[in-house]
User: Which sequence fits this backbone?
C-alpha cells in the first residue's frame, strides 16, 4: 500500500514489476528543431537540452551498459532506457527505429522517450506502437503550461492544441503518456496550475512530471533574471502550487517527479538553494499536516 499522499512512481514500478526499476538517462545525439530553426528555443533550456551530461564518445548501447553494470552492483536488475536530452522523435522514422532498437538490451523493461508535442507524427506513433509488443513504452510530452500567454513568454513554439492532439492520438494507440508541467512559471496563476491538472486528468494522461523552474547560465531566462525582468516566486508559493496541482489531479495518475534537480554548476537560481530531497520532504509534510492528498479536489 502507498502511504504517501500522492501516487508516486517508485511504488508503482515496484508493484508492476515486482522489484525496483531504475531510470537510466541516455543521449542519442538528437537535437531540437526549435533551437536550430532560428526561433531561439525555450528561454529556460540549457545548451545540453536536459541539464545533465554524458560522455558523448560513448555509443548509446555503451552508455546503457556502463550505467547498468554499476547499478547491478547495487542490486538493481530492471531498467528504463530514458531518452532525455532534447527532442527524441526529431529524426526520420527508420533512424528512430534503429536508435530505439539499440536501447533494448537485457533487463530493459521500458523505453521512455521524451519529446515536444508538435513532433509526434502518426508515423512516430505507429513505430512506438510496434515497440509496445516487446517492452513497455512511455512517451513524455512537454506541456509546461496551459496558458497561451505563458507559452509565448517562455517561447515554447507550440500551442496547447498540439499537446491535446498528440495526447489523444497516442492514447488511441495504447501508448503510456507522461506530461511535463512547470508549476511556478512567473506568468502563470494558481488557477492555471489547477486547470493544467484537470486537463491532464480529462485526457487520461498516465503520469506527470512536475518541475520547479530554475535558471541556467547561458539562457535567455538568465538574461531576463539578471535584468530584473523576471522574478521567481517564493518557496512557499511553489509548495502551495505543487499541492494545489496534486489536489486537482486524478488519484490514478502516477507522479514521476515533484521537483527539478538542477545541476550544481552553471545554475544561477535553483530550488531556493535547497536540495531536491529537502523539497520533496517539505511537500509531503505539508500535504500530511494540512490533510491534503492527490485527487481530493479532482472532478
Assistant:
Amino acid at each position: 500500500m502507498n502511504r504517501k499522499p500522492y501516487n508516486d512512481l517508485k511504488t508503482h514500478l515496484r508493484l508492476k514489476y515486482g522489484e525496483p526499476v531504475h531510470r537510466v538517462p541516455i543521449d542519442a545525439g538528437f537535437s531540437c528543431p526549435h533551437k536550430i530553426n532560428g526561433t531561439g528555443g525555450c528561454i529556460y533550456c540549457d545548451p545540453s537540452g536536459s541539464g545533465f551530461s554524458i560522455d558523448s564518445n560513448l555509443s548509446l548501447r555503451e552508455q546503457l551498459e556502463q550505467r547498468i553494470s554499476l547499478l547491478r552492483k547495487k542490486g538493481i536488475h530492471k531498467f528504463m532506457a530514458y531518452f532525455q536530452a532534447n527532442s527524441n522523435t526529431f529524426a526520420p522514422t527508420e533512424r528512430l527505429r534503429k536508435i530505439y532498437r539499440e536501447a533494448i538490451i537485457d533487463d530493459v523493461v521500458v523505453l521512455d522517450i521524451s519529446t515536444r508535442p508538435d513532433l509526434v507524427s502518426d508515423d512516430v506513433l505507429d513505430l512506438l506502437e510496434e515497440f509496445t509488443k516487446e517492452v513497455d513504452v512511455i512517451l513524455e510530452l512537454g506541456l509546461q503550461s496551459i496558458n497561451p500567454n505563458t507559452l509565448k513568454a517562455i517561447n515554447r513554439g507550440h500551442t496547447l492544441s498540439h499537446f491535446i492532439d498528440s495526447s489523444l492520438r497516442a492514447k488511441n494507440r495504447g501508448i503510456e503518456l507522461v506530461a511535463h508541467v512547470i508549476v511556478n512559471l512567473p506568468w502563470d496563476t494558481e488557477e492555471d496550475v489547477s486547470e493544467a491538472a484537470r486537463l491532464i486528468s480529462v485526457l487520461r494522461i498516465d503520469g506527470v512530471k512536475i518541475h520547479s523552474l530554475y535558471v541556467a547560465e547561458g539562457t535567455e531566462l538568465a538574461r531576463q533574471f539578471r535584468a530584473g525582468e523576471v522574478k521567481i516566486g517564493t518557496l512557499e508559493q511553489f509548495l502551495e502550487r505543487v499541492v494545489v496541482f496534486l489536489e486537482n489531479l486524478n488519484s490514478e495518475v502516477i507522479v514521476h517527479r515533484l521537483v527539478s534537480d538542477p545541476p550544481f554548476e552553471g545554475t544561477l537560481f535553483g530550488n531556493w538553494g535547497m536540495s531536491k530531497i529537502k523539497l520533496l520532504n517539505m511537500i509531503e509534510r505539508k500535504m500530511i499536516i494540512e490533510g491534503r492528498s492527490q485527487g481530493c479536489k479532482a472532478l
Summary: The longest strand covers residues 136-144. The chain has one domain: 9-289.
